[in-house]
Structures are given as C-alpha cells and as structure tokens.
C-alpha cells in the first residue's frame, strides 16, 4: 500500500521530534539527454537533531531504488529500512547525520525533475517543481514546510548546459576525466522549506542584468538578475521588458515591506510543460513558458504575466521568508501574494486596470469555487498532502486576496503594511499560523481582528447581495440591502459584515451612464436599511458594492437590470462595467435569468467593450453559456447568432488590434460546434481570405485547425503537414488536440485509450488530448460514461496525483444535456451515475471524491440553467 500521503498528524509528530539544520544534495544528470536512461543518481546528506535520544523517525524519498543509507556513519540494511516512500531511522542521537543515495526518476508529469525534449531542435531540458511535496521525488528529505534548513546543491551535467539553483553559483569545474561534464557547486542557502528548493539544467538561453536599491539610510542592495528560456524560443523572449518589470517590482516591494530582499540573486526561468503559472523558489522563480509569447498576445496577457511575476516576487517575503507551518494556512502565502501581485501591477507599472481585471477575472474564479459543495474556509482543514494538492484553488488565492483587500479597507493601508513589516521581522526564516499574523495586524491597527477572522477566514460560502426598493413617484422611499449567505458545504446561513458603497447612476446630457451619487454603508445580517438613500431620485442604475469594496455576488433590481441590458455600453467607468458584466454572468450561472440573455448582451455590447481583459473574459463566458447553459433546443440558434457576430466583428475591428485578435479566437472556438463559417476558417488558413492586420500565427492557426477538425474538415495528413510547419512544443499540443477533436468513434476511442490506459503522454500532451476528446457532440461521447466511472479507482491508484487529477477532472462527462422530455437535473443519467459511484465508494481517497463532487456540481448547474424558462427582462435605453 502506498505511504506517500503524509498526514498532518504524522508531520506534527516528526516536527516535535527533530530539528533540521542542513542538506548537502548532489545530483548527477549528465545522461539526461539519453531517452533510454530513466533516472539519475541522487545523494542527500542531512544534518539534524533529535529531542528524544533513542527515538525513531523517517525520511521521505520517492525513488526508483535506494542504494545505501548511512546513519551517523553506520550503514543500514536497505531492505530493512526502506518502506515504500519512507526510510526509517531508528536509535537517533541528539545530533545526527544521515546520508542517502539512490536513483531518482525523471518525470514527464511536471512533478519532481521534469525532463523535456524540444521537438524543434532535439535538445533536452530539465527543471524541478515540488509544491506541495515532490522534492522527495528528487532527493531524500523531511518533506514538510516547518522543517526548514540550509541547502547546498551540487549538480553534474553536460558542460555546455546552463545550470542553476536557489543559491549563488560559486564554483563550476570541468571534469578532467570527462571534459564533456562539469560540476556546479552552489552556495548554501538561507533557511527554507524543502518544497521551494529547485534545480534548473539544460541548454537554456540566459540573459543577465542587475538591480541595485537602497533601504532606509544605510542598506544598499545589489541583486544579480537572470532570465532563462529554451534556446528555440530565444527570438521571442522579451527579456528587456521582463527585467524592467523585475526591477520595478524589487524597488516597490523592498520599500513597501521595509525588509531587504533576502535571497541574494533573483533569477526567473520560463520552462516547458509547467503545471502551474509559476513557483516562488527563492533566487530562481520558475514560470510556465506560455508567458513567452511566440504568437500575437493581447495586452491583457502581458498584464496577466506582470501580475504573476509580481505575485511570485511577493512570495519572497510572504511564503519564503515566513512560511506557513502546515498546509492549513496555505492562504498565508497565496492570498497575500495574489493581493500583492495586483497591488504591484497597480502601483509599479503603467497598467491602470489591475483591480478591474481582478474583479472581473480573479474574483469570478473565487465565486465559482465558493459555490461548490466542496468549498472550504480560507483557513482550511488540510489533513494530508492529497488534500493540500487540491487546495490550490480559487478560495485560497482569489477569495483570500479579496478578503485581504477588504481587511486593508477595514484597518487602513498603513496599519496593514506596518503589521506586515513587524510580521516579517518577528518570524523571518520561520513558520507561522493564523494567530501570529493576526497578532501583528491587531497590534498595528489597534483592532481586535479575532471576530473578523472568524467571520471571513473561518467560514465558507459567498454572500449574495440584492436591493429591496420602494418608490414614491420618481423618488426612493426606502432602500434595503438583503443578504443571502448560505454555506454550500454545511447549508447554514453565514451572513457576514460588509463595508460597501452603493452607487447611483443616471444618463448625462450626452447619453453616458455616469455615477451621480454614492453612499458608503455597513451591511450585516439578512437585511440592512440604508436610510441615507430615502428621498433621493430613483436612478437608472442602483449598484450595490460599487467600486468592488466587498466580496459578494450582486443581484441587480429589475429596473437596474433593464438599464444594464439596454445600455451597458453607456457606462463610462471600467470598474462599473466590469461589475455589471459580472452581475449578468452570475445571474445566468445561477439560473436566475436565461443564459441566452447573457449571450445576447455579449453580442450587443461586446463590440463596444474597450477593456481587452474584460472582453476576452465575457467572450469566454458567452461560449460557456452556449455550450453548457442554453437549452439544447435553443443552442444552435444561439451559437449561430454568436458566430455571426464574431465573424462580423473580426472584419469590423481595427486592424491589428487586440479586439480583432479576441474576435478571431472566438470565431475559431465557436466553429468547433458549428459548421456555418468553416469556409472563412479555411480561407484564413490558406490566405485566400485576408483580414487586414490579423496575425495568422501558429497559435491562431492551431485554433482554426481545431475548429475544422471538430467538424470533420481536417484530415490527419493536413494536421501532420501543419505540425511539420510548426514542430514546436506548442505545435505538438495543437496537433494532439486537433487529432482528438475529429468526430469519429475510432478517434475518440484512441484518445480515450491514450489518456486513461496509456503512459506515453506527458502532462501537456495529456491535457491537449483530453481537450480534443471533449470537443464533440454529447452523443459521440456517451459510450464513455460507464468506462469513466469504472476506471476511477485504478487511475487514482496507478498514476501520480497530478496526472490522475487531470484525467479524473478532464474526462468527467460534463457535456451531457438535459433531455428536454420531462427530465430534471436530479434524474439525469450522469448525475444518477455519479451519485451511485459516490455512495458505493465512501472510503475512496478524499481528493478523488472531491473532484467527482465538484464535477457533479458543475454539471448539475448546467442542467439547472438549461431547465430555466423564465421570461426575458425588459430592456431600457438611454433617454
């Protein structure tokens, strides 16, 4: 039985017994480029003390084989002490040193030491990714965040490679016995957790720079900078822009936190097939290479990259310098970094829409997550590592950041920063829990934050705020804010206090819809009367949570909703427009109004939306609404109308604009389910149709091929020819998706076999194959419903948690429709089949059950929206 799933209780027992001091880790990856070599030699020398002499503990190591174990100079019998992923150490002394040597395996799942061969030039690239607990796949260690230590890495690799790690590269020696091999010796790090150590190795392109800054009157900082990407991507690598962002961020955060950047150098690597957006390894941050834009990218994509870059930089303090004790307090780093990333973009770059995009995008992610039956408090209950893996979600990141934004408003920005500075000073290089942070913020603000934490950090679910309005003539007689706050995990009502603003909007003489008045008020409980609004003129739009001060969904009153549906494009304030878009979307997702009305709003007002981040978001929402929420009988008409709008706007948008690119992507995506514009797709591909200013580059070409393939209009030969034209990592993914999208039973069966039973797909190609498989009519995929449920336990047992999660989540039959013949969401075959599986497997791993429960909830929401037959909302227009 696997013993990889370390529990919180086991970690607590181990942390009470031992204190780790240092690691000396040697890795030999000189043969990594040979595909026949599956692993590499890994050697760990760990120095630690034990509080109870004679006691026993264990070291974590997920290895192909363990060669030797020496404890305090004595060799131990490997067969006696190795138990799965654990190595038992007995009869500990007050001070101990254990040396463990073994063969670790290269990965194609993005976990541990990932090995990637660039199809463009055949070069081999390595990088590591560990969070939450995959350092043990690379070297033996005590794998938990509160056992910090200093780390010294040594790497043997081909001499022509670039090699880096957390510490400074203090010595590089070419072997006299083998000049093709060099040894890199890195300086010891400061004390850190195992999961943020890292190694990078391969023929990476490297760019160098430096940042200098001062802190106070005496501290001078000189930080070497470096950037890495694959050699075949170097021509697209905008290193100057990235260095500029990095320098701005270091200046901003050093001054803001009043604590000098603690990790010496600051390097950033953009790596292939990355499972995350980025990872905050001190001194060497790793990013997905999708942030190296080899095809045309919209300005919002550059802004999102900047947000991620600054998010990871904030982690150098929140998470790396001060680290949560256990994964229950994951929010201590992720919520803060998410908030600080947006703050950094807002204050240290030229973008002025950071908080608009946060409201429209990041918070929407949190709203979705917080309505699932598996939602959890920001401070979560994480009993083991599998649960930790699933908790990198919209609650931990975006809801936590939203709540911190509210906390800043509550205690004041200066007090919040003063408390953060004291927190760093008090706990540098240590581990904390919620209590330590609250103590620092309470002391700085003079407020007892215990009740605030209970209401916002230790409860789950999202409040829905609406207004109850009575009128007398053209004036408001009374206005009350109603709060519905059911916790979907428990069913309890959990109303929370909100400090928010209510905005009043009317049409000006030019026909624009502008804010004419606002009031700030405290909302608590189920009903709050806002007496300040009595007697004011009835506005065209009354917006609860104006300026996005609180974390809550908003329902527009009928008069305001009619205004928005008739005049959304007349709103001049970007944040107000974003909030109104979100209100319309939430109403459609919650089956309050028909999803077709949201699609109609996007068709009417999307062409006038100037914010590219908002536009891309609402276009994506409209596509989801059509394929998931609009009833099957109305879907073809809704899709055809949306497709017509996309084609028209592609022609009408300014040549070369982000809006043109957005509509081109939408045209390709919508065409996967409709053959009405395939001639246009084919014409753009073969250049018989020229759209002025449109960059028909590799990414767009694969999107167009996906649309053609899904309609049976792209042969394997054509797709293979396109791959030959774009023989890159992204090209291989596009090719895999298009191949699996073809509407043939044999194609779907082959994709299923490769994803579920095969082991030849890397993490990236697995996701690409699943994406293509899911493109198609529900009837074509119906035959895989029973095999899906029958395979779940085997998939979870046999595959790594990353790969298993992708399969279980990605292949759930979520594309099934309400039958339209009197069926209900509760009687739908997939819902019933899911319920039967859950009932029959009460002891299945919690992480597996969580994914199934969440996918059931998403499908049930779709079916509920499809069942809605409410009347359309009357639309008002500007006078």
Walkthrough of the structure:
By secondary structure, the chain is an alpha+beta fold. Helix content is 41%, strand content 22%. It is built from 28 helices and 29 strands. The strands form six sheets. Strands 1, 2, 4, 5, 8, 9, 10, 11, 12, 13, 14 and 15 form a twelve-stranded mixed beta sheet that branches. A hairpin with a 6-residue loop joins strand 9 (112-117) and strand 10 (124-129). Helix 6 crosses helix 8, helix 9 (413-427) crosses helix 10 (434-445) and helix 22 packs antiparallel against helix 23. The longest helix has 21 residues, at 632-652. The chain starts with 7 loop residues before the first helix and ends in a 13-residue tail after the last helix.
The shape is: globular
Number of strands: 29
End-to-end gap: 71 Å
Largest sheet: number of strands, sense, barrel closure = 12 strands, mixed
Number of helices: 28
In terms of DSSP E residues, the strand content is 15-25%
Q: What is the percent of helical residues?
A: 40-55%
Integer average pLDDT: 95
Class by SSE composition: alpha+beta
Cα Rg: 28 Å
Which stretches of 5+ consecutive residues score pLDDT under 50?
870-874
How are the SSEs placed, and which strands pair?
Layout: H1 8-17, E1 18-28, E2 39-50, E3 57-60, E4 65-71, E5 74-76, H2 78-81, E6 82-83, E7 86-89, E8 95-107, E9 112-117, E10 124-129, E11 150-158, E12 162-165, E13 169-174, E14 181-186, E15 199-202, E16 205-215, E17 219-229, H3 239-257, E18 266-271, E19 278-279, E20 284-288, H4 299-315, E21 322-324, H5 331-348, H6 354-369, H7 385-390, H8 395-411, H9 413-427, E22 430-432, H10 434-445, H11 450-456, E23 464-472, E24 475-484, E25 498-507, E26 513-523, E27 527-529, E28 541-546, E29 553-554, H12 558-567, H13 574-589, H14 595-605, H15 612-629, H16 632-652, H17 658-670, H18 678-686, H19 698-710, H20 716-725, H21 729-741, H22 745-757, H23 763-774, H24 778-781, H25 785-798, H26 801-810, H27 829-840, H28 846-866
Parallel strand pairs: 1-11, 8-9, 17-18, 18-20, 21-22, 23-29
Antiparallel strand pairs: 1-2, 2-8, 3-7, 4-5, 4-8, 6-7, 9-10, 10-15, 11-14, 12-15, 13-14, 16-17, 19-20, 23-24, 24-27, 25-26, 25-28
Helix pairs in contact: 3-4, 4-5, 5-8, 6-8, 6-13, 8-9, 9-10, 13-14, 13-15, 14-15, 14-16, 15-16, 15-17, 16-17, 17-19, 18-19, 19-21, 20-21, 21-23, 22-23, 23-26, 25-26, 27-28
């Amino acid at each position: 039985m696997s013993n990889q799933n370390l529990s919180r209780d086991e970690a607590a027992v181990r942390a009470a017994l031992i204190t780790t001091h240092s690691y000396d880790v040697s890795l030999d990856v000189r043969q990594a480029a040979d595909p026949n070599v599956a692993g590499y030699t890994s050697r760990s020398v760990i120095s630690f003390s034990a509080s109870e002499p004679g006691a026993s503990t264990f070291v974590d190591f997920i290895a192909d084989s363990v060669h030797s174990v020496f404890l305090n100079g004595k060799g131990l019998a490997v067969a006696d002490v190795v138990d799965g992923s654990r190595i038992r150490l007995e009869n500990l002394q007050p001070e101990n040193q254990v040396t463990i040597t073994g063969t670790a395996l290269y990965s194609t799942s993005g976990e541990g030491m990932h090995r990637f061969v660039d199809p463009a030039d055949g070069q081999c690239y390595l990088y590591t990714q560990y969070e939450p607990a995959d350092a043990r796949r690379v070297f033996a260690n005590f794998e938990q965040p509160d056992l910090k230590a200093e780390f010294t890495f040594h790497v043997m690799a081909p001499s022509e490679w670039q090699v880096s790690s957390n510490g400074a590269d203090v010595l590089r020696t070419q072997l006299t016995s083998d000049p093709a091999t060099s040894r890199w010796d890195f300086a010891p790090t400061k004390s850190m957790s195992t999961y943020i150590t890292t190694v990078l190795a391969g023929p990476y392109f490297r760019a160098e720079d430096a940042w200098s800054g001062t802190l106070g009157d005496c501290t001078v900082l000189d930080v070497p900078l470096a950037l890495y990407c694959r050699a075949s991507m170097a021509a697209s690598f905008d290193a100057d822009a990235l260095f500029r962002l990095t320098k701005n961020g270091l200046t901003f955060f050093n001054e803001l936190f009043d604590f000098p950047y603690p990790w010496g150098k600051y390097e950033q690597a953009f790596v292939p097939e990355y499972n995350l957006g980025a990872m905050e390894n001190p001194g060497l941050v790793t990013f997905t290479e999708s942030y190296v834009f080899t095809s045309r990218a919209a300005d919002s994509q550059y802004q999102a990259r900047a947000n991620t870059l600054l998010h990871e930089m904030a982690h150098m303090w929140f998470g790396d310098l001060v680290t949560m004790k256990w994964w229950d307090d994951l929010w201590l780093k992720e919520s803060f970094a998410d908030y600080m990333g947006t703050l950094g973009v807002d204050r240290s770059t030229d973008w002025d829409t950071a908080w608009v995009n946060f409201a429209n995008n990041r918070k929407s992610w949190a709203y979705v997550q917080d309505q699932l039956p598996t939602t959890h408090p920001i401070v979560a209950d994480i009993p083991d590592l599998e649960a930790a893996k699933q908790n990198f979600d919209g609650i931990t990141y975006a809801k936590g950041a939203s709540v911190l934004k509210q906390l800043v408003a509550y205690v004041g920005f200066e007090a919040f920063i003063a408390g953060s500075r004291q927190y760093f000073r008090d706990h540098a290089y240590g581990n904390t829990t919620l209590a330590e942070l609250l103590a620092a913020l309470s002391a700085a603000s003079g407020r007892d934050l215990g009740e605030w934490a209970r209401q916002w950090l230790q409860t789950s679910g999202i409040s829905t705020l609406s207004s109850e309005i009575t009128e007398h003539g053209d004036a408001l007689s009374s206005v009350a804010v109603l709060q519905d706050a059911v916790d979907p995990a428990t069913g309890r009502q959990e109303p929370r206090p909100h400090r928010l603003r209510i905005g009043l909007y009317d049409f000006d003489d030019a026909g624009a819809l502008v804010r004419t008045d606002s009031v700030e008020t405290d909302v608590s409980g189920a009903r709050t009367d806002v007496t300040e609004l009595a007697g004011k003129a009835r506005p065209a739009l009354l917006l609860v949570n104006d300026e996005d001060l609180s974390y809550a969904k908003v329902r527009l009153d009928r008069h305001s909703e009619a205004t928005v549906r008739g005049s959304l494009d007349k709103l001049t304030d970007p944040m107000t427009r974003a909030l109104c878009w979100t209100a319309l979307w939430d109403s459609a997702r919650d089956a309050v109004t028909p999803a077709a009305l949201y699609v109609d709003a996007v068709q009417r007002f999307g062409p006038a939306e100037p914010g590219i981040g908002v536009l891309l978001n609402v276009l994506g929402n409209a596509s989801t609404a059509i394929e998931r929420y609009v009833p099957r009988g109305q879907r073809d008409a809704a899709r055809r109308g949306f497709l017509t709008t996309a084609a028209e706007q592609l022609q009408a948008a300014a040549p070369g604009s982000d809006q043109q690119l957005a509509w081109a992507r939408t045209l390709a995506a919508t065409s996967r389910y409709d053959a009405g514009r395939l001639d246009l797709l084919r014409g753009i591909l073969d250049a018989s149709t020229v759209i002025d200013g449109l960059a028909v580059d590799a990414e767009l070409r694969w999107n167009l091929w996906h649309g053609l393939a899904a309609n049976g209009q792209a042969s394997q030969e054509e797709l293979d020819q396109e791959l030959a034209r774009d023989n890159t990592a992204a090209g291989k993914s596009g090719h895999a998706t298009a191949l699996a999208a073809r509407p043939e039973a044999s194609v779907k069966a082959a994709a299923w076999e490769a994803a579920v039973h095969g082991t030849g797909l890397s993490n990236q190609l697995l996701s690409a194959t699943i994406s293509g498989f899911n493109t198609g009519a529900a009837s074509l995929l119906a035959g895989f419903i029973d095999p899906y449920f029958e395979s779940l336990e085997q998939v979870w047992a046999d595959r790594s948690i990353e790969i298993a999660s992708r399969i279980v989540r990605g292949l759930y039959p979520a594309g099934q429709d309400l039958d339209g013949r009197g069926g209900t969401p509760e009687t739908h075959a997939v819902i019933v089949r899911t319920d039967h599986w859950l009932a029959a497997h009460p002891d299945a791993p919690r992480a597996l059950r969580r994914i199934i429960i969440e996918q059931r909830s998403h499908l049930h929401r779709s079916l509920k929206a499809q069942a809605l037959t409410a009347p359309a909302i009357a639309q008002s227009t500007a006078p």
